[in-house]
Amino acid sequence: MSPRTSQNKASVHMPHTVLTPLCCGCVHRYDFATVHSTAKGLFTSIDCFMYGAEVSSLLLWWGDVTAMRAGVAKVLDAHAKVLGSVQRGETSAETCAYEAFCACVCLAQPLLAANEFELLREFLANSMVGLALTDDAVHAGVASFWAGAFGAWKSEDGHCHTTLDTWLLVVRGLTALVEEDTESSRAILREWLPPPDELLRISEYECAWRAKPLGAADPALLCARLHGERLGTWATAAEVAEGVLTIEQFNPLLRTEAYRLLGRARHALGEIPAAAAAAECAAAEAAGARYVWLEMLALRDQLLWCEAGAAEGVQSRLSALVGRAAASAEEVAAVLGECSFLVHLYKVK
User: Fold this and answer.
1) C-beta separation of 94 from 88 below 8 A
2) N or C: which end of the chain has fewer CB within 10 A?
3) What's the pLDDT tens digit per position in 218-234?
């Protein structure tokens, strides 16, 4: 079922399980005790539910925060059980290396987009993804992915699938994002956070990052966000966001988040019209891919930054999106904020 079909059904207030039969069906029916062992016994030996792709779809296309959280709970439980099995010596970390790689790629984006930092913190603390930074056995197991056909691919001119170092950079960036912001944490960030030219080299030469649904968890964008939010170097964040937009011309999820970051950077630098223009570009990218949730966030930003004469039109578009999203009024308010000129939008829920 396409997002458009589902959104049309949303207008007659049909249940969420009818709106998103495929994604919700996967979430409701997944049972680790039966599915995981069966999936690992098939020819691919992969438990695809552990990626978190269904979770991302529920939020991006339908704005269904409740269903997303239900899916995240099951994904986190699966990763915690796999980690426990590895720590007890019942299985090796290598057997779920691909699930760890893909969970980092798929699951972080919806958690960041919904401001679910507690769930992200829980995921990092109870999965091979997070422990790859500190546990030697887990690190070695996850690293085995880059010895296989996909991970080991590299062209003569230096293009490659991805690298272990950059995957670990993403994990480290996510970990830094959920940690308390202190002078000590900022000092540590300055020691390891890559400069703009290295981040753009990663975007250009590590090809798979641009093909995956990382969105805001893309290594270049994630590190650029830390440059801005934690170190106050918003000019660096803007440079990286613009560079990513130049490098990647097709991936709408990546481009939406790059424009959103660019808008934040321009706003922090006092370039308000440029910030509003970036937010409009983010909304257009999201609308083209029917990402209801991200379009809503982009229009929220645009409404905050646009000129007074444009506010009414932006409000009208934002109100329509709030009505289409399956999220409750409380869930929408938690993301859009409590600005006085936004409060009336929640009433449509």
Assistant:
1) no
2) N
3) 999 999 999 999 999 99
* CA atoms of 243 and 249, how far apart (whole Å): 11
| Residues near 261 by beta carbon (within 8 Å), at least 6 away in sequence | 216, 221, 224, 225, 228, 237, 241
Model pTM?
Answer: 0.91
Decide if pLDDT at 345 tops 60: no
- pLDDT tens digits, one per residue of 107-164: 999 999 999 999 999 999 999 999 999 999 999 999 999 998 888 999 999 999 999 9
Q: How far apart are CA 193 and CA 186, in angstroms?
A: 10
Within 10 A of 205 (CB to CB), how many other CB atoms are there?
A: 18
The Cα 207–Cα 204 span in angstroms is: 7
CA distances 215 to 102, 128, 180, 211, 258, Å, are 13, 21, 23, 10, 8
